[in-house]
């Protein structure tokens, strides 16, 4: 594997709720190798967006990083002063939001918003900024003439391209994309993902792609980090985690999504139940209450990260039996019985 | 082009509204109890004067014919003869209108400048002690009746401290070459201060509270969060993005407030003996000077309608989403 570029270690992010606090992200560790796309997957509320926002240190008013490190090119983002952190924002760490409609200011032209970043953050002069705007629009395949248009004059897919252009404006090293294609139809999704991957390879940037959609991960990511209830359930290369899932949650996820390649895989099987409340998480493995393979130890002891093969980790007490469990997980009855 | 088209269609709509107002005024003054002639002809006019007016307004003709004569007269700016002043109503109104507009605009500009800044500040300092003290204070100023506030200010700053004159627009005997010379004189400002302050204090609550609540909403928008993720300075985030967007409805409310304020002027102009349209309206009604009252009503309606048009156009200018839709 290539050199690690971003290394998140034991990250804890908490929200103040009432008089107490709730750990939305509880001891998350993963690595982003330089020049790769890492998919952060999980269902709503698993903490994936919270991790993404923690990396920018722009979080909800009641959220705070309560532990851990985020080593970015040798610097710990969690420990930087606000001033030093702000120096990194957009110049080195850029962000592509889910809804480009709401994340572009409606009263300014797209050019104005690109210029704002180029000139205020990038220190470019008027002429240079103008040139860069055109370059960026060509890069994402939008007519240069549309620079003077307002956000509402673009279609959803176009706006997402504008968001990509905006993110790439200052040649960042890391781009965090939070559900970048979720609001789009599948055809446009594919176009945008293709473009994102092409640009990522061309420019050699690293990308963290937050999504709930396994098929998006399968389509574009190099590595996968599967999150469940504020923990990392499993991580490894995309192929390994999707073809040989070693955590029962990943096995279940795979059953619950249609195959992106279009092969008819039969019935979609949901995972019964809902994630636990983070205000009062269950002891032991957080997936245990929904897991068809849970055993006695699961309910009391938090499972360690087990390296099932080099670079492929699963936080499961039964990770050693993964091949057998995988076989059982293929059957719909396995998941129905445990409901 | 689309802007022009929108403006044209709005103007047409407003012409219709104006026509409705004019028609209602026509009917109102003719449906009042008593002799409809009383609306135009005062018994003390000379016989020649009475006959001239009868002919001019067709008061001896059927109602529908009178209506068209009335419309025709209006189009020529002919509003009749004031009973009290024995001079054309149009002249009288045009002489008073500038005083009212100066008072209205100066007080509203102060109120909006203050309200917008303070509202944005309070939104930014949400939850602080300053905010918690300020909101009830603003609500209190909003709840104070204007005439009461005007009298309190008069009592303190004019009668007690003697800093400002008690009423009018100029000292007795002072002459100015033009209205412009009057309005730009230092003396005029001392006359303007108290009535303008009264109206400003009364009016600042609306833009302040509107700006504050808009800001609080806009601050939650994704594009504000994105501006922070971009590492833009606090000033850029709060002013260029949050305040700029929060300002849209406030600016529209300014134009509408100008129209609305003319009502408030009726009271404040009376308290401060301000020779404006509002005070004239009150005097005209109490003196049964129907032509003058009718003219003043019409002029106030005209300003309200015009300012609504301005509000619409302002929105089109400030918000690129409007007009393209």
Alpha-beta classification of chain B: mainly alpha
User: What is the level-2 CATH architecture name of the largest domain in chain A?
Assistant: 3-Layer(aba) Sandwich
Major sheet attributes of chain A: 8 strands, mixed
**Name given to the CATH homologous superfamily of the largest domain in chain A:** P-loop containing nucleotide triphosphate hydrolases
In CATH, the homologous superfamily of the largest domain in chain B goes by the name MetI-like
Quaternary structure: heterodimer
Write down the overall mean pLDDT of chain A: 90
Q: Which second-level CATH architecture of the largest domain in chain B applies?
A: Orthogonal Bundle
Low-confidence stretches of chain B: none
What gross morphology of chain B would you assign?
globular
Shape field of chain A: globular
CATH domain topology of the largest domain in chain A: Rossmann fold
Distance between the termini of chain A: 40 Å
The total domain count of chain B is 2
Structural class of chain A: alpha/beta
Please write the CATH class name of the largest domain in chain A.
Answer: Alpha Beta
Reported for the largest beta sheet of chain B, the result is:
none
Q: Tell me the domain tally of chain A.
A: 2
Strand-residue proportion of chain B: under 5%
**Cα-based radius of gyration of chain A, to the nearest Å:** 21 Å
CATH topology type of the largest domain in chain B: MetI-like fold
């Amino acid at each position: 594997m290539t050199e690690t570029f971003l290394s998140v270690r034991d990250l804890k992010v908490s929200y103040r709720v009432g008089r107490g606090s709730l750990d939305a992200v509880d001891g998350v560790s993963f690595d982003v190798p330089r020049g790769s796309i890492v998919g952060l997957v999980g269902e709503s509320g698993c903490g994936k967006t919270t991790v993404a926002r923690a990396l920018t240190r722009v979080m909800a008013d009641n959220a705070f990083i309560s532990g851990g490190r985020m080593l970015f090119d040798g610097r710990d983002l969690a420990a930087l002063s606000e001033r030093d952190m702000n120096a990194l924002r957009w110049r080195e760490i850029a962000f592509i939001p889910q809804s480009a409609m709401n994340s572009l200011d409606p009263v300014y032209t797209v050019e104005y918003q690109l210029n704002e970043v180029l000139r205020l953050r990038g220190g470019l002069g008027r002429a240079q900024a103008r040139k860069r705007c055109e370059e960026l629009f060509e890069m994402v395949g939008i007519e240069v003439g549309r620079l003077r248009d307002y956000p509402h004059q673009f279609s959803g897919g176009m706006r997402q391209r504008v968001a990509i252009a905006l993110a790439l404006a200052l040649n960042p090293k890391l781009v965090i994309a939070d559900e970048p294609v979720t609001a789009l139809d599948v055809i446009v999704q594919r176009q945008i993902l293709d473009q994102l991957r092409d640009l990522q390879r061309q420019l050699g940037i690293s990308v963290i792609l937050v999504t709930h959609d396994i098929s998006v991960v399968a389509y574009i990511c190099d590595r996968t980090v599967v999150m469940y209830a504020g923990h990392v359930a499993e991580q490894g290369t995309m192929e390994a985690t999707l073809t040989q899932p070693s955590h029962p949650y990943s096995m279940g996820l795979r059953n619950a999504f249609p195959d992106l390649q279009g092969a008819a895989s039969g019935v979609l099987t949901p995972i019964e139940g809902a994630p636990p409340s983070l205000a009062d998480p269950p002891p032991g493995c957080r997936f245990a209450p929904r897991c068809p393979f849970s055993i006695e130890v699961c309910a009391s002891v938090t499972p360690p990260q087990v390296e099932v093969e080099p670079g492929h980790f699963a936080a499961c007490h039964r990770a050693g039996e993964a091949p057998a469990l995988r076989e059982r997980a293929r059957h719909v009855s396995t998941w129905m019985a445990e409901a | 082009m689309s802007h022009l088209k929108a403006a044209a269609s709005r103007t047409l709509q407003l012409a219709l509204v104006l026509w409705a107002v004019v028609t209602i005024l026509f009917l109102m003054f003719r449906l009042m109890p008593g002799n409809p002639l009383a609306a135009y002809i005062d018994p003390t006019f000379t016989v020649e004067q009475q006959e001239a007016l009868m002919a001019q307004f067709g008061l001896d003709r059927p109602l529908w014919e009178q209506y068209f004569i009335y419309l025709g007269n209006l189009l020529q700016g002919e509003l009749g003869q004031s009973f009290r002043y024995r001079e054309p109503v149009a002249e009288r109104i045009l002489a008073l209108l500038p005083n009212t507009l100066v008072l209205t605009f100066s007080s509203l500009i102060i109120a909006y400048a203050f309200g917008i800044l303070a509202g944005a500040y309070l939104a930014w300092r949400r939850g602080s002690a300053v905010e918690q003290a300020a909101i009830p204070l603003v609500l209190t100023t909003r709840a104070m009746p204007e005439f009461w506030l005007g009298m309190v200010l008069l009592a303190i700053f004019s009668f007690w401290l003697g800093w400002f004159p008690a009423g009018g627009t100029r000292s007795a005997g002072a002459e100015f070459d033009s209205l412009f010379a009057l309005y730009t004189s230092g003396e005029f400002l001392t006359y303007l201060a108290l009535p303008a302050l009264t109206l400003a204090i009364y009016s600042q609550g609306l833009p302040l509270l509107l700006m504050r609540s808009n800001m609080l909403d806009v601050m939650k928008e994704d594009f504000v969060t994105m501006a922070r993720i971009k590492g833009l300075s606090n000033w850029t985030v709060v002013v260029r993005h949050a305040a700029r967007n929060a300002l849209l409805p406030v600016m529209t409310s300014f134009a509408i407030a100008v129209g609305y304020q003319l009502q408030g002027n009726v009271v404040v102009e009376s308290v401060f003996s301000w020779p404006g349209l509002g005070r004239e309206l009150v005097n005209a009604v109490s003196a049964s000077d129907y032509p003058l009252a009718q003219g003043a009503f019409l002029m106030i309606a005209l300003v309200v309608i015009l300012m609504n048009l301005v509000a619409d156009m302002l929105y089109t200018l400030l918000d690129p989403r409007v007009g393209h839709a």
